[in-house]
Design goal:
about 80 residues, mainly beta, four-stranded antiparallel beta sheet, Jelly Rolls
């Protein structure tokens, strides 16, 4: 979390249970998603990126993507927004 804040992101912590799916969408702001626990798949233009504990993915503003929890563990996620 501190590393993302040093990079200029406002960071929120979220938890997502097994089966959570976010349909394709985009954000007007630059985003950074990080995983603390569990596994989260973010798909950009049909390319999946599987994030596990310690991984981060940077999304420029306007990047269309979807996300879903993979596996049975609850995901603890860092959601960074650069305003």
């Amino acid at each position: 979390m501190a590393a993302m804040e040093r990079e200029g992101y406002e960071v929120a912590v979220y938890t997502y249970r097994e089966g959570t799916v976010f349909p394709e969408h985009e954000h007007a702001q630059e985003k950074c998603d990080g995983v603390i626990e569990g596994a989260l798949r973010i798909t950009i233009k049909e390319t999946p990126y599987d994030l596990k504990a310690g991984d981060r993915l940077y999304l420029p503003a306007g990047t269309r993507h979807s996300a879903e929890v993979i596996g049975r563990r609850t995901v603890v996620s860092l959601d960074g927004t650069k305003w």
